[in-house]
Write a structure and sequence with these properties.
The structure is a homodimer of 414-residue chains. The first copy, chain A, is of the alpha/beta class and 414 residues long. In chain A, the strands form three sheets. Chain A has a seven-stranded mixed beta sheet with strand order 2-8-7-6-5-3-4, sandwiched between helices. In chain A, strands 9-10-13-12 form a four-stranded antiparallel beta sheet. In chain A, strands 1-11 form a two-stranded parallel ribbon.
Chain lengths: 414, 414
């Protein structure tokens, strides 16, 4: 065999096989109640309506749907996406849109377009693991910014300080990555003020904002807050925001379908990058989803998803109140949307180790450490409430409460 | 707007918007007969059988097919791929296989895994444009190798000479890219001897071979020759070959579905890379194609494709004999498979300019220059025979013959 190790690129050597994703496999055993994944609830997948839409494509446009398509994306799908965004107050033209094979591909495209080895991306501490993987796969690094105590966005003082230090230290920062709507993993939502402040910061520094909005439509409590993309559009309209959306959480993830919204200058560069990556996204699926959107039924699916997730979220919060030890240093976020909440434990507890104990008790979560590019915090965990059933939430949180209690007892005996 | 130009990566600045793909858009006007694309013939798409298979998935596995899947690919699809390859004499285990979003994604993954800026890939002169784009998108370069006079593979003396010079000059070569079965763009097929010689060269130099085989099954004349992947497997079995396959030419391209066959050490690295690129390939389509394969009907589609392409290829060759000026310096390949032939004109003719004249006459092709990473030859063109109808082939070649005649007359008047 060739000595592949000596032939692999620097990028390849910087890629990290996600230990989380490896652990996810362990937690998929049928007897384990898993709060670990990020799977949407299959009970709201509109199977029969999707079947009908697919059959319309077979009836009317099969040969076109089975042929190659353009890199930019199917015209019909882009028209539906423009209407979908318009209903939320976002104004788009086709040249602001690129259809992608879901958000992870968008994270890859943007990373490839901007990042040279050693470059930096500003991102939250913690932040989405897949974004970290994309950044690291181009040998770039993350300048981590803590969130405010109020959990309403970045600690803006820390942002300014870390940015100034980095610039003074000669670090090249290329963009700012944020998930303002129901942040993954922590679940909280950025306030309007913090969104505006970040946009101002982007204007001042000339840095683009990569706004990842997979959960934006999954708000089950409170009022929608404009996206940063919208705030720019309604205000100075400087085109500094690249906004990522996906069907994975509002319809089905198996379609691997999403879209990028950005200034046409960015989109046209993304098209060139994507062409060399996969020529175009699955054409049949694009036309199929467009056909489904034309039925007007997507809004109802999103409403059902919100209703269901609200019930599941409430059930998890109530179960935590019931089963977690009552201590000031055990707390969790109460998200108004999305799929996750974030549980913080006493500093003496390492959730990487706690996970082993939890798996013994047949319950699983994601240890928080995986969501930090460096200097991870070890006493937190991400819990998914969209996928498990109410019964599983009840029983799983009960088992988890027991595991936490035992871990605290052990740590206090030491 | 941020100064995106100053923020884009070196890779982004090395990405080339393919002028060919831009031109393709021009040639898609309905009144133009186009030999320019690389589209398979839609008349062989098995629409009703594909519809039936999709409906089986809706009936039996919808929720799973619409959910996230593993990066490695659907188990059922990988089982079918193993059987499909076994019928051709290729022995695989699941760990030799990665499902990808068609070959272009595989070209991107391999380039990302191996190429640092300034690295080299050995490839033919000419070679597939999409492979060049993938390589250039990581700021790497191509060491171009001419083909032999007999058009049976690389000129092996030239390969050894260029390789030795490059190594002596400190160039880092990472892999060898070839399309042995019906080379794109030239259409010819590598002989058994040349395949063996290249494999030996790989063993000697420790370089992996990236064998791209999108057209392997589309042989309509002569006997199949073992792939280089097979030759390695049957011989020293050193695992030096990474073989790329796709459904784009044997079934439908709109499904964006292909597979990589390689040593497990390479596959596991590809999995890590792909995870950061798109998490997984379209799950619904994977299960749908697997279901279609289980019907056993793919072989018949491949047979029909071969029959149809043979008729079209013959028709194009005969039309060229009828309509092209009879000169020793006008010649074309007579491919035994695939979708393309390669036409060479007198050296005085620049096909980039000829294309403009051809488009005036409502016929299009791809100028050969786009298939060279550097120092392009200018007197050749790629002609696709799979997509146009027999009538279009007849009329289009007639128009092209006229354009060539006029161009020669003009060049001789100068």
């Amino acid at each position: 065999m060739p000595d592949f190790g000596s032939l692999f690129s620097i990028n390849a050597n910087n890629m990290k096989a996600s230990t989380i994703r490896e652990l996810l496999k362990l937690t998929q055993k049928p007897d384990i109640i898993s709060f670990a994944g990020g799977l949407p609830a299959p009970e709201v997948f509109p199977v029969e309506d999707l079947r009908a839409a697919a059959n319309v494509i077979f009836d009317t446009k099969a040969k076109q749907a089975l042929q190659y398509g353009t890199t930019e994306g199917d015209d019909g799908l882009r028209e539906e996406l423009i209407k979908f965004e318009q209903k939320q107050g976002v104004e788009l033209k086709k040249e602001n849109l690129l259809v992608v094979s879901a958000s992870q591909q968008a994270l890859d495209i943007v990373a490839k377009l901007f990042l040279d080895p050693g470059d930096y991306v500003i991102a939250g501490r913690p932040t989405y693991l897949g974004a970290l993987q994309a950044i690291q796969s181009y040998s770039a690094k993350v300048l981590g910014i803590p969130f405010s105590e109020a959990q309403d966005g970045f600690d803006m003082d820390a942002l300014r300080k870390r940015h100034a230090e980095a610039v003074a230290g000669g670090k090249k920062i290329k963009y700012i990555y944020v998930i303002p709507d129901f942040q993954n993993p922590a679940g909280f939502c950025w306030s309007l003020e913090k969104r505006k402040a970040l946009l101002e910061f982007a204007y001042e520094t000339g840095l683009p904002i990569l706004e990842d909005s997979p959960y934006r439509e999954i708000r089950f409590l409170g009022e929608a807050i404009p996206s940063i993309y919208q705030l720019d559009q309604r205000g100075a309209n400087k085109g500094v925001v690249i906004n990522l959306k996906t069907f994975s959480k509002i319809l089905v993830p198996g379609a691997r379908m999403g879209w990028i919204m950005a200034d046409p200058a960015v989109i046209s560069k993304c098209v060139v990058a994507k062409q060399a990556m996969d020529l175009c996204t699955n054409v049949f699926t694009q036309m199929w989803i467009a056909e489904y959107m034309r039925t007007g039924k997507l809004d109802a699916v999103i409403r059902s998803t919100r209703e269901l997730y609200k019930v599941k979220r409430n059930h998890m919060v109530e179960a935590l109140e019931r089963y977690m030890p009552k201590r000031a240093d055990i707390r969790w976020t109460r998200p108004e949307g999305g799929l996750f909440l974030w549980l913080t434990l006493p500093e003496s507890i390492d959730t990487d180790r706690l996970l082993l104990k939890a798996i013994e008790k047949k319950v699983a979560f994601v240890a928080g450490s995986g969501f930090y590019a460096d200097e991870p915090e070890h006493n937190s965990m991400r819990m998914n409430f969209s996928y498990p059933s109410l019964e599983q939430i009840e029983e799983g949180v009960k088992r988890l409460g027991l595991a936490v209690k035992e871990a605290i007892d052990e740590s206090e005996r030491r």
